[in-house]
Amino acid sequence: MSGRVRLLRSLALTLILWTAAAAVPAHEVRPALFEIRRSTNSQCEILWKQPVAGELAVRLVPRLSAGWLDAPPASESRAPGHRALRWLRADCPLEPLEAQSLAVEGLDATLTDVLVRVDFGDGRRLQHILRPGDAPLALAGTSVARTAGATPGSGAYFRLGVVHILEGVDHLAFVLALVLLVGLRARLVTAVTGFTVAHSFTLGATALGLLRPWPAFIEMLVALSILFVAAEALRARGAAPGTLTQRWPELAALGFGLLHGFAFAGALSEIGLPRDETLLAILLFNLGVEAGQLVFIAAVLAVSLAVLRVNFRLPPRMAELPAYVIGACAGFWTIERALVVFA
Q: What's the predicted TM-score (pTM) here?
């Protein structure tokens, strides 16, 4: 096996230890949604939707500066993946709405992002991502006038895709295991391309409602895919390629990319899509996922090349540790998610 691959495996040790320390459970990082829809007759429907895990939900409380959300919601609903609250206001003048700012109590203590959508009812719309640590969002100061052919705030879906992949520890673990399996070779490009094509297909089909997978089962299969590729990376070390996956890693990337696309679509499914910009939102979200993935791979390769310039050696067996850590984390995730599926 080439020195480049050994160095890459040694580098992966650092990245995987970061992964394990960051979040071994690796639950999907899903955004919350805050939406205001104002009708032409000055009525407002306000929706707050936040992710939950079973019966557990982080305490997040949306606050409008005018106190419109201080009253109990008109309705509350729960689904396996989220909790939704709705407020209805019969009197919703434009100027008081514009003058308000939005804050989310408890957001700073989480990793949750909030997608904010506001339809002012006069052709203007706001789309923005509120992240932990951000100041309260001024609705008027962030709104964008809608003109012919414009896509106000559509970049929010691109940013959401980037954040979603970079905070999705399990997806990054799969990409890293794939890099370990293929190595610093030209075939890495085709493997990553196959993964991209596959997850783009299932992400789009799921977000459009053409496919409706069982989310808990998909998450378990995603964990299994990481475990499988980590095991193949270990088996390929120091031996001639024997299995189909070792000979054609592109096939594994293509097949497992379909599973990961279902999981990527979970974020969009939870928050919904804008009614008249559905395809654009899906495209931008997918491009964001791809951009985040390429940033991660570029970081791995950049550090690998930097390490090549240093006369640094690890014991031979240490080079296997990254794949073992990936496999151990993936095994834990598989068991954890299987308990959800079969409970």
A: 0.71
